[in-house]
Each structure stands twice: as structure tokens, then as C-alpha cells.
Amino acid sequence: MSKTSLDKSKIRFLLLENIHPSAEALIRAAGYSQIETLPRALQGDELKAKLADVHFLGIRSQTRLTADVLAAAPKLVAAGCFCIGTNQVDLATARERGVPVFNAPYSNTRSVAELVLAEAILLLRGIPAKNALVHRGGWMKSAAQSHEIRGKTLGIVGYGSIGTQLSVLAESLGMHVAFYDVVTKLPLGNARQVYALPDLLAQSDIVSLHVPENESTRWMIGPAELAAMKDGGILINASRGTVVDINALTAELKSGRLWGAAIDVFPVEPGSNNEEFQSPLRGLDNVILTPHIGGSTMEAQANIGVEVAEKLVKYSDNGTTTSSVNFPEVALPAHPGRHRLLHVHHNVPGVLSAINQVFAEQHVNIASQYLQTKDGVGYVVMDVDTASSDAAREALAKVPGTIRSRMLL
Ligand SMILES: NC(=O)c1ccc[n+]([C@@H]2O[C@H](COP(=O)([O-])OP(=O)(O)OC[C@H]3O[C@@H](n4cnc5c(N)ncnc54)[C@H](O)[C@@H]3O)[C@@H](O)[C@H]2O)c1
Ligand SMILES: O=C(O)[C@H](O)COP(=O)(O)O
Hints:
This protein is an alpha/beta fold. The chain contains 13 helices and 16 strands. The relative contact order is 0.13. Bound molecules: nicotinamide-adenine-dinucleotide (NAD) and 3-phosphoglyceric acid. Belongs to the D-isomer specific 2-hydroxyacid dehydrogenase family.
């Protein structure tokens, strides 16, 4: 087994936000013992203080890794988002600091798609309002405004991993599926792409949002888009809270023009289960409110724990960055009997020759070399026959353009 330049017993992992125990189990099995877990998100100064000595960090969707926070984490080697979304991390700053960020791009897609479909059925039957009424002692046995899902049109905004999975499941129930995406996508089954958002909104009985949080999606569903939806339409948002103007949605629901909504994500969400949730949507019987649990199933969380922990351990043990969301991707073989230099640098001319020069001066033979670059950052990995001396390591760290370097012994 490879060793890191820092002894494994000294490498510290911090896992926040109630990450599934499968992650800790995998990291321990890989020989790491310093693993702290917390059930909640940390922010700002509290997060910075914690990160001062941390080498590997695991978060979910609530912990904000801003440039400011990253600057307070000098030892951070890599970060794992134990979820799909990575909008909570300043990915460019992380890259410029030599910190690869990993996520689990597919592990909870099915969980989200199942929840959305269930909500669509419940809303078409008016169940949230009927359920609330019956709990209050009321009784409304009526078929009025209660509909089957079969034959209805589902409009999917964002036809990626979740959108396509939902598309297939919805068609299996007899729905018609239309979708809007900024990229031209191969429609699955009988789904069809609609090239203008207002057209999709106007055609759909149910609109479900599955876009990432970015500049193009911020408040993309505002008053005009809600007005473009069918009378009696239903909106489902299990993407990110910043995609929908909640005040505008509240107005449409209160007026009765929209029939119902299911909202899982909010512009401001509590950082732990002990904080109060605030939203103008509270108290509306035709709205299903869920606490950002679209991906929260035992199946998904256990898989995510393993997937992201594996990526962190692999980067620590072997330097592989495959599937990193912000970093040059290099897939590396094992390096038995060899020593491995991992060097992250600004992608400027002369860095590779300077590294080669250091090894040449130390009479160290280079057995293999891997290089990849991304957005101004280069990542070179060299397997060498003999251990580099302290002097060589110092010289490597001083190569102009170096962001960070690490040696696996
Ligand atoms: N509620 C939850 O618990 C939960 C769970 C998982 C994911 N999510 C959220 O769902 C999002 C989508 O997940 P995914 O795995 O399907 O992502 P994905 O990257 O596979 O798909 C996103 C799709 O959105 C499209 N898109 C991007 N910008 C767009 C725009 N302005 N207009 C239209 N389409 C646009 C992309 O082209 C892509 O096809 C994630 O980014 C995450 O924020 C939420
Ligand atoms: O991006 C995601 O995968 C979801 O929003 C789930 O986030 P969570 O792990 O914080 O529940």
C-alpha cells in the first residue's frame, strides 16, 4: 500500500452535515484514524477555526466553502461534496489553491425522481389539502379537481441525470413528457424537447425543475414564468432554492391561479434540524413542503458515503483526480516500488522543465509522467525510482508557479 508524505495517522478528516457512516467506515478501513464527524453544517468563523488543521473535508449542500473560508484552510488537500450540487463551493478558488473537489453525481438521482413523481400524483389528487382538512376533523369526499396522472403533460426544466430519470418513470405511468434544456439533448422514449421556456411552461400540467444553481438559473422562475404556466398548473422544485421567486409563487398559490406546489429547496434553509424554518409558503394547504430531502434516502446516502469517501481516499493514497468537478483529471495506476510526486502549479511555460531539472540534478530517474491542465492550473504526476531527498523536495516546492506539491512514498 502506498504511503503519503504525511503519515496516515496525522491526516485529519472532518465530515460535516450528518454524512452517512459508510464514509467514515471506508476512510477508517483505508488506514486513516483521525476522523471527526458533526451532524450539522458549519459556517464562517466557526468553519474557519475548524479547518485550520484539516486535510480532507466532507460536506453536503449547506456548508459554504467560500474564498474566504478556503483561505483559512492552509492544510486542506481535497474536499468532497457528499451530494450532487457543488454550488456551495467556490470551485475556481479551490482549484487555484490546488484543492480538488469531488461529488457524487448520480447516487441520489433515483431518489429525487421518485419523490417528484409521488408529489405529482398527490398534488393532482389534491391530497395535501385533503390530508390537512381531515387532520383538522374535516371531511371532503369529492372527485372535484382530482385527476389521474395518466395522459397529463410533465414539463421538465433541466434534462440531465435527474430530469431524464424522471422522464422515463413518468412515461411508464402514461404521462406525456416535454423538456426544456439549454443544451440540445437526446429525448428518451417519446419525450420531446421544447426550445423556449415559456412554451414549455404553457404546455405543461406539471412543471418540475432540475437545473443546477448558477447564474443562468438564479430566479429563472419569477412572476413572468409563473404567469406563463397553465391555469391550475403545478410547480415542483427539488433543484435549488434560488431557482424560484418564492414570493411570486406564494402569490400565485394564494390567488388560486396555480393549483399546488411541492417545494424541497429554499433560498434560505436551516443549517441543522434544530433551527426554525421560515418561509411565506408555510401554512398553505395546497403546498407540499419538505426539508431538502429529495436525495435523502438510506440507499442514496449510503452509496454517496462510499462514492465520495473513495474519491478522497484515492486522491490521498494515489493522486487520482478522476471525476473531480474543478480539477485537471488524471487517472493513475498503482505505483509499487516507486515514489510519486504530485505537483499542482499555475499552467505557465517552464514548470515541467524546472521539475525535470530538479530530478536530473538529484540523479533521480523518472519512470513515468502524467500531465493534465484545466483553466490555468496544471497537475503533473511523476513516478520516480528513488526517494527524493529533503533538498529535492524543497527545490520542487520552490519551482516558480508551484501551488502545492506532495510526495507519496
Ligand atoms: N433536492 C435534492 O435533495 C437534490 C438532490 C440532487 C440534486 N439536486 C439538485 O438538482 C440539480 C440537478 O441535478 P442533476 O444531477 O440532474 O444535474 P445535471 O447536471 O445532470 O443536469 C442539469 C441539467 O440542467 C441543464 N441546465 C443548466 N442550466 C440550465 C438553464 N439555465 N436552463 C435549462 N437547463 C439548464 C443542463 O444542461 C443539464 O442538462 C443539481 O444541480 C442539484 O442542485 C437536488
Ligand atoms: O445536491 C444534492 O445532491 C442535494 O441537494 C442533496 O443535498 P444534501 O446532501 O444536503 O441533502
